[in-house]
Amino acid sequence: GVDQNRWWFLTGSAFDINQLAVTGLKLAIYENKPEERTVPADLFVHSTKLVVVDRQGRIRGWFDGENPESKGEIIRAVKTLLKERK
After folding, report:
1. By three-state DSSP, how is residue 78 classified?
2. What pLDDT score was predicted for residue 28?
């Protein structure tokens, strides 16, 4: 039921996703063992951090995805990136 116009989901091999998350974005990730999965798609336990990345692939900020106050911080970070495009 996700609005595909608002969200992009990372897809790919488990190895590639793990590499990007841990090595690239510096996020925690844990692969659920098959016996720990509540549904077949429950492959990973992952960080609740949101990461803003610029066009050059540089991390511009990490934000707490569970903290409602992060919304304003994320908006400010994105607006900064938009200003840099001009």
Report:
1. helix
2. 84
SS3 64: strand
Rounded Cα distance, 76 and 53, in Å: 13
Res 75: pLDDT:
92
C-beta separation of 29 from 58 below 8 A: no
Phi, psi of 71 (to 5 degrees): -55, -45
C-alpha span between 25 and 65 (Å, rounded)? 15
Answer whether 0.85 is exceeded by the pTM: no
**Rounded Cα gap, residues 15 and 36, in angstroms:** 19
The distance from CA 63 to its chain's CA centroid, rounded to whole angstroms, is 10
State the Cα–Cα distance between residues 67 and 23, nearest whole angstrom: 24
